[in-house]
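Contributing new records

If you add data, match the layout below exactly. Sequence lines come first and carry their own label; structure lines follow with theirs. Keep one chain per record. Anything else will be rejected by the validation script.
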Amino acid sequence: MCLPRFQMPISNKTFIRSTALLMLTGLIALIGIVGTNIWLVERSQGYFQEVIDARSIRRASVDLLGSLQDMETGQRGYLLTQDRKYLEPYEQHIEAIDRNLADLNASLSQIENAQESLQRLSTNIAYKRAELADTLTLADSQGFPDAIERVRSDSGKQAMDDIRAFLTAVMTGADDRISAGAENQENTINFLRLITVVGGAVILLVVSGSIWTMISYMRELALARKEIEEANLGLEARVADRTKELGKANEEIQRFAYIVTHDLRAPLVNVMGFTSEMETGVAAVRTYMELHPPAPGDTVAEEAYLAASEDLPEAVTFIRAATRKMDSLINAILKISREGRRTLRPESIDLKRLVENSAAAVHHQLVEGQGEINIDVKVNELFTDRLSVEQVLGNILDNAIKYQSPNRPLHVRITARNAPGNRVIIDVADNGRGIADTDHERVFELFRRSGTQNNPGEGIGLAHVRTMARSLGGDVKLSSKLGAGTTFTVDLPRDLRAYLKGNGA
């Protein structure tokens, strides 16, 4: 009787190609997100500057027109009342006129064909100022009736009408530019949000595809190893050869798992970083919009305000939650990968003392719920890797505490006994919630959990336990009844050195 030739269902070449393709896809998606974000930020900055320039033009126009109207109002008040206090607006804005006109010239300097109109505006303003000054001089020298008669001649009305018409047109144009800039900014923000969401979805798919590929490869590897173990116990040499091949394949998948998760972390960190920058930018836009609330009836500005205050922050929150989930999954895979590469160090350990120390580590958690742990260890010495056994027992005890029944105090019983074939059996039984029959094997799969999930976790604890137990030449199984409790059975060789020697380690 001989073993059938083992062949990986998923070849190394296929795994490498699929992994490389997923990484390339993630890199392209990241480059697209970064490039598009930079381009959109530049566009948004340009539109923002246009709005600022338009506001400067409008403010200068309003200030200039207001100064002229105040001067005219002061002149009229003084001529009608013959009281010099009415000249205060006139005197206050004599110098302001020059500043306002200079501000308007500076604001319109970049606009083509504006110089001729500005020259005509300056001429009209100079004429209007001269007309106002002449009437006041006439009132002081020849009397108020002559000055009022000069005003009634409407000698400066045409100049003032031209000034008012020009500045009104400038303000209307500035308002149009402000509206157009706000609309362009809103469109840019919407497009930026779309690109970010789509890019995040692509990267999430890439990470999910990588994880699925690794899980499939590891699952097939585990199934293949089980096939070899069950195929023919009589052919120890062939089994040892096959196990050695599986060990190499396991190292390879762990190496690839580390490479994939490590390389995926870089684009994920970049996405998280750009998400923070986008959040900062959104906060700045929202602050600006809050300081400049939309005018009643301005639907475009109202929509922009809604996008800045609600839509964009919500989108950033969704992206941040997705990236945190991806980061958690990558950390879980890295943890398993690192453990798989750790060198085992067989040593003589007192199993009873080790079990007592593991129980003491969780004793305070049991006492809080009036629980207890009973220990019955009938094994004197075990030659194995201490850290691995401590982690196996620690994870199983943590699992018992995490999934204890809310209807009764938790009771755990740990027993250990010798078994045929120079092996040791460790049983950890609890009276917790139990596991459904359909999930007995499912709970040992990576990222898979059973029952109602009201406790935090990624679903790697029991998968990690089985991986460590098998690396020690043993296995972990369970028997459970839903609502009654669970018993985990850890089967280990008494001497790890003999196992490692038999497998060429």
